[in-house]
Specification:
The chain is mainly α. The chain has one domain. It has 5 helices and no strands.
Length: 71
């Protein structure tokens, strides 16, 4: 996903509290653009969702900050 589109999507999901949307998008983003792009959505997801998905995305989330690195 282009970085400008990624930043915009992350900002919209986080600022509008679109947790459910982020959680639905993450598997699709992961399939289409890979683990690193999917990991960027973790910051907009609920804590239980992050806890379930972080083990398989930890390598991609490392150093990204927010909930992904601190969950």
């Amino acid at each position: 996903m282009p970085s400008s589109a990624d930043r915009l999507l992350s900002a919209l999901l986080s600022s509008r509290r679109r947790t459910a949307l982020a959680e639905r998008l993450l598997p699709r983003v992961r399939e289409a653009w890979g683990d690193h792009e999917a990991a960027r959505l973790l910051r907009a997801c609920s804590t239980p969702f992050v806890a379930r998905h972080l083990p398989s995305l930890a390598h991609a989330a490392a150093g990204r900050g927010g909930r992904a690195a601190g969950a």
